[in-house]
């Protein structure tokens, strides 16, 4: 395959997200402008100007009309996907790290970083159908975990919120009462910071990637460990194929250590693993720095990766990918 | 100044201006487009004058293929026509934000499909297989014993000094490697020092391993062609064709890495001297880079 290289960002990529139809790809980077691309040919459709800090994550509503972004400028913003107009700004007292719309797009979960004696928190906001009615008050605020919460996503039926972060513990919270329901234990859980967390297409299980050089597959309801994928480098990003039983891990060394080694030793490939057999299938090379973001097209026929090198690489699979045998 | 098209038949060549080539185009039959038919074959028939002023019929046959099955939703099609916004509005034509990689990227298989991880370890170590097959190859140059130990492991190393001039290349490299480890003043990068994490070097070795150089390739050979040519011999982990950055043409050589050494050897035996695109291929082991 010949990947499509998209050079729209001037700083390292932080997050990638496809819309539900798989025709748009949203990219976030440490430069202040999230960008939307056509997912088939990589053409740039537009940019969302208004943030004043690194943008850490984004999510798009099911009807591809609304975009929410979380940024280090201590705000999360709602955007009109089509025009790039800002609809609303949620103000916080610390950087917003992770954002996600609930199923039905009525709620959004936003995490904020620990900052100036403030602890990290998970906020649940109500998203109004009409942006004019939008308010900034939180429906629920969850506090407790130490350190940054890198990712918080909605559990099945929006009943729970699943979070993971610097304290390397995965937690499942009740999204109504805010009670902590489950916690991953020391033995089966990650040993280092959880960097990414992605749900399966049906939401029944999710995958977490960690700097302890592994990724783990968990049941979304019971939080039982299903599989572990061991690799030889810290995992920054994970993705799960909606079509085949494949998981993709991306990572590399710390950004501060990359200049001291050969790029061939840097392990900047996206590694494919068989989801069930936990065996490596192959690697896709190309980035000149660690991979920070990975996303699979909802049709499972292409995936994109975003790197510390500022490039988004969009890969449309060759036909022989679909009948790879272990 | 020009003859009226209705009087076409009466035009005399002498009346036409010589340097005005386009003026003759009305004499040509119109462009014809046939298809695309159910197989996606489309024919375009054009006529033009060549440099000598002769009429030439050009038939271009193309196959129209849908690359991705466009099962796009109505909304997605609508979005396709959305106007650009933000920075994308005033994008220069030459900004080239989106480019297709010039390099063919393949999903690199860690090992041949169907093999166990242990097997690849043996296959990846050329000496391991050699030692099993013909033990005669293992000859100690210090004591002359066959099939018992390598020169560097010779228990009699200290007793008998090797006669000078007898030492050939491999021995030099072996002793040099040993010396580098044992505190000679040459600089050794941190990653290469004994006790350091060796993953980096292993990675590199895997890349250079079982590498086959293919030369005398035709200009329009690309990686997929080479892959097609070499895949029947066994699992291929990497294919590379040197491409001229300026012209985009192949520079006539490339490299193919095999997962198994035996496959590579078979490919060399079979394809060296093989006629490919009117050229005689030269296929040989790639000499490892010396650095």
Automatic annotation (TrEMBL), chain A:
GO CC annotations?
eukaryotic 43S preinitiation complex; eukaryotic 48S preinitiation complex; eukaryotic translation initiation factor 3 complex, eIF3m
Tell me the domain of life: Eukaryota
- Gene Ontology terms, MF aspect: RNA binding; translation initiation factor activity
- Keyword Signal among UniProt keywords: no
Spans of repeat WD = 6-47, 48-89, 142-183, 187-228, 284-314
InterPro entries this protein is in?
eIF3i, WD40/YVTN_repeat-like_dom_sf, WD40_PAC1, WD40_repeat_CS, WD40_repeat_dom_sf, WD40_rpt
Keywords, alphabetical: Cytoplasm, Initiation factor, Protein biosynthesis, Repeat, WD repeat
Q: For this chain's UniProt record, which GO biological process terms are given?
A: formation of cytoplasmic translation initiation complex
Location in the cell reads: Cytoplasm
User: Can you state the subunit structure given in the record?
Assistant: Component of the eukaryotic translation initiation factor 3 (eIF-3) complex.
Q: What is the purpose of this protein?
A: Component of the eukaryotic translation initiation factor 3 (eIF-3) complex, which is involved in protein synthesis of a specialized repertoire of mRNAs and, together with other initiation factors, stimulates binding of mRNA and methionyl-tRNAi to the 40S ribosome. The eIF-3 complex specifically targets and initiates translation of a subset of mRNAs involved in cell proliferation.
Question: According to its UniProt record, which protein family does this protein belong to?
Answer: Belongs to the WD repeat STRAP family. Belongs to the eIF-3 subunit I family.
What's this protein's name?
A: Eukaryotic translation initiation factor 3 subunit I
Which organism is this protein's natural source? Corchorus capsularis (Jute)
From TrEMBL, chain B:
Report the InterPro entries cross-referenced here.
Answer: eIF3_g (IPR017334), eIF3g_N (IPR024675), eIF3G_RRM (IPR034240), Nucleotide-bd_a/b_plait_sf (IPR012677), RBD_domain_sf (IPR035979), RRM_dom (IPR000504)
Its annotated compartments are:
Cytoplasm
TM region(s), chain numbering = none
| Principal cellular location given in the protein's record | cytoplasm
One GO process term, biological-process aspect: formation of cytoplasmic translation initiation complex
Report residue spans for region: Disordered.
182-203
Q: Name one GO cellular component term.
A: eukaryotic 48S preinitiation complex
PROSITE patterns listed in its UniProt record = RRM (PS50102)
Q: Which GO molecular function terms does the record list? A: RNA binding; translation initiation factor activity
* Keywords associated with the record: Cytoplasm, Initiation factor, Protein biosynthesis, RNA-binding
Superkingdom of source = Eukaryota
Pfam families assigned:
eIF3g, RRM_1
Q: Which Gene3D superfamilies match?
A: 3.30.70.330
Identify the residues that the record assigns to the RRM domain, covering every copy: 210-288
Q: What is the residue range of the signal peptide feature?
A: none
Q: How does it assemble?
A: Component of the eukaryotic translation initiation factor 3 (eIF-3) complex.
Q: To which protein family does this belong?
A: Belongs to the eIF-3 subunit G family.
Q: What does this protein do?
A: RNA-binding component of the eukaryotic translation initiation factor 3 (eIF-3) complex, which is involved in protein synthesis of a specialized repertoire of mRNAs and, together with other initiation factors, stimulates binding of mRNA and methionyl-tRNAi to the 40S ribosome. The eIF-3 complex specifically targets and initiates translation of a subset of mRNAs involved in cell proliferation. This subunit can bind 18S rRNA.
Q: What is this protein called?
A: Eukaryotic translation initiation factor 3 subunit G
The scientific name of the source species is Corchorus capsularis
């Amino acid at each position: 395959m010949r990947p499509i290289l998209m050079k729209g960002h001037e700083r390292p990529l932080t997050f990638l997200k496809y819309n539900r139809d798989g025709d748009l790809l949203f990219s976030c980077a440490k430069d202040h402008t999230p960008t939307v691309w056509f997912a088939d040919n990589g053409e740039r459709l537009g940019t969302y100007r208004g943030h004043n800090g690194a943008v850490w994550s984004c999510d798009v509503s099911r009807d591809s009309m609304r975009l929410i972004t979380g940024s280090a400028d201590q705000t999360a913003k709602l955007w009109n996907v089509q025009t790039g107009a800002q609809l609303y700004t949620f103000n916080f007292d610390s950087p917003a790290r992770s954002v996600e719309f609930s199923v039905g797009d009525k709620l959004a979960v936003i995490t904020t970083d620990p900052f100036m004696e403030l602890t990290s928190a998970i906020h649940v906001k109500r998203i109004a159908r009409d942006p004019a009615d939008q308010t900034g008050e939180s429906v629920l605020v969850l506090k407790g975990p130490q350190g940054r919460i890198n990712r918080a996503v909605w559990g099945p039926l929006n009943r729970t919120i699943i979070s993971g972060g610097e304290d390397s513990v995965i937690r499942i919270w009740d999204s109504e009462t805010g009670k902590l329901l489950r916690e991953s234990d020391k033995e089966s859980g990650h040993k280092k910071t959880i960097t990414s967390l992605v749900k399966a297409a049906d939401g029944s299980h999710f995958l977490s990637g960690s700097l302890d050089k592994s990724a783990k597959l968990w049941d979304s309801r019971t939080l039982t460990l299903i599989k572990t994928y061991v690799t030889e480098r810290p995992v920054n990003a994970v993705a799960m194929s909606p079509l085949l039983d494949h998981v993709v891990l991306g990572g590399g060394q710390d950004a501060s250590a990359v200049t001291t080694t050969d790029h061939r030793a840097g392990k900047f490939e996206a590694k494919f693993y068989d989801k069930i057999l936990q065996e490596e299938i192959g690697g896709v090379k190309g980035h000149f720095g660690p991979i920070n973001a990975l996303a699979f097209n909802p049709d499972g026929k292409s995936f994109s990766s975003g790197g510390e090198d500022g490039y988004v690489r969009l890969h449309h699979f060759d036909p022989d990918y679909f009948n790879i045998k272990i | 100044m020009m003859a009226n098209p209705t009087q076409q038949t009466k035009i005399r060549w002498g009346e036409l201006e010589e340097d005005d080539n386009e003026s003759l185009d009305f004499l040509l039959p119109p462009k014809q487009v046939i298809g695309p038919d159910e197989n996606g074959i489309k024919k375009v028939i054009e006529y033009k004058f060549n440099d000598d002023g002769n009429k030439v019929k050009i038939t271009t046959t193309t196959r129209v293929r849908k690359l991705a099955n466009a099962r796009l939703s109505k909304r997605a099609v609508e979005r396709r026509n959305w106007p650009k916004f933000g920075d994308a509005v005033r994008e220069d034509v030459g900004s080239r934000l989106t480019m297709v990689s010039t390099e063919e990227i393949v999903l690199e298989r860690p090992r041949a499909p169907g093999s166990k991880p242990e097997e690849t370890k043996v296959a990846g170590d050329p000496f391991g297989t050699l030692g099993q097959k013909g033990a005669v190859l293992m000859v100690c140059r210090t004591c002359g014993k066959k099939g018992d130990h390598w020169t560097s492991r010779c228990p009699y190393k200290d007793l008998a000094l090797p006669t000078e001039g007898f030492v050939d290349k491999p021995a030099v490299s072996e002793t040099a490697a040993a010396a580098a480890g044992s505190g000679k003043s040459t600089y050794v990068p941190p990653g290469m020092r004994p006790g350091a994490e060796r993953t980096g070097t292993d990675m590199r070795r895997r890349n250079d391993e079982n590498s086959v150089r293919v030369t005398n390739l035709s200009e329009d050979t690309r990686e997929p062609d080479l892959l097609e040519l070499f895949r029947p011999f066994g699992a291929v982990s990497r294919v590379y064709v040197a491409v001229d950055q300026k012209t985009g043409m192949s520079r006539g050589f490339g490299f193919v890495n095999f997962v198994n050494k035996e496959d590579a050897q078979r490919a060399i035996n079979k394809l060296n001297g093989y006629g490919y695109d009117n050229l005689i291929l030269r296929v040989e082991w790639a000499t490892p880079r010396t650095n």
